[in-house]
Amino acid sequence: MTPNDDTTDEASTDENGEGSETDATPAADRRRTPGGGEAPEPEPIEPAAPEEFGLVQAWWGDGKGKTTAAMGMGFRAAGHGYRVHMLQLMKGGADSVEGVRGEYNAIAAVPGFTYENAGHYGWHGLLDGSADDEHEAKAAAAFERAEALVAGAADADLTEPLPLDGDPEDGVHMLIVDELLYAADRGLVAPDDVVALAESKPGDLELVLTGSHAEPAYLDGVADLITNVRKVAHPFDDGQRARRGTEY
Fold first, then answer.
1. What is the pLDDT of residues 184-233, one digit of tens each?
2. Is 28 exposed, middle or buried (0-12, 13-18, 19+ CB in 10 A)?
């Protein structure tokens, strides 16, 4: 755009002759943006393929929100018609929460977003009545499942739309492996195997890994995005139990 272009807003002056700020993005310029300057409206979800997927993400830290962030991206991707699947390790249910998960109900209502829970009851390393060897067996089986899902994505054409009701083994655009980093931190999955999983993924698969209070340094140079979700304050420290609608 040249200085004399008639779509350029000229600076206005106040009563003292001083220049004042005008709209930094004139209407004509806004119409050239991807959104055309219009407020977004919901549209029907139809199968589509992402143009820029293919990164490895790692979400770790002692703060609340790692799984929440991953699922938020999953919902966003599914809203564009991309095929999304979430595989959860370590979360098989516990006495501290009810036998229902709000996220499962929501995922079931969204086309193209599916999940499976591969965790054992309770939590590894805690005196909660669960057996650590069962946690180990469940984690090993879940990791094999993650490998199968990555292999299925490698066999699919991820540059094309995928059936929203298709089997996740037939390919997904985004795979969320929730709590895999925590399983690696607990020694239930070898960190080297997590690296191998990330390095084996096809170029167009967005792979999102979550979990672990300890930094997954083994993913340095492997993951494209590494986010530390840091705790500043947490109601659990004051004895607040998990709440329906926020933690489950």
1. 999 999 999 999 999 999 999 999 999 999 999 999 999 999 999 998 99
2. middle
Q: Kindly report which listed range (98-112, 120-134, 165-179) carries the lowest average pLDDT score.
A: 120-134
Q: Are the C-beta atoms of 21 and 142 separated by less than 8 Å?
A: no
The string of pLDDT tens digits covering residues 59-100 is 999 999 999 999 999 999 999 999 999 999 986 545 545 666
**Cα 104 to Cα 227: distance, rounded to the nearest angstrom:** 24
- What CATH number belongs to 56-215? 3.40.50.300
Are 184 and 205 in contact by the 8 Å Cβ rule? The answer is: no
pTM over 0.90: no
> Positive or negative CA dihedral for 193, 194, 196, 197?
positive
103 Cβ partners below 8 Å, 6+ apart? 71, 115, 248
Give the distance from CA 128 to its chain's centroid.
29
DSSP 153-166: HHHS-TTS---TTS
Please report, for the chain, the start and end positions of each structural domain, with discontinuous segments joined by +: 56-215
Q: Is 40 left (phi over 0), alpha (psi -120 to 50) or beta?
A: beta
CA 14: distance to chain centroid?
49
**Cα–Cα dist 36/142, whole Å:** 44
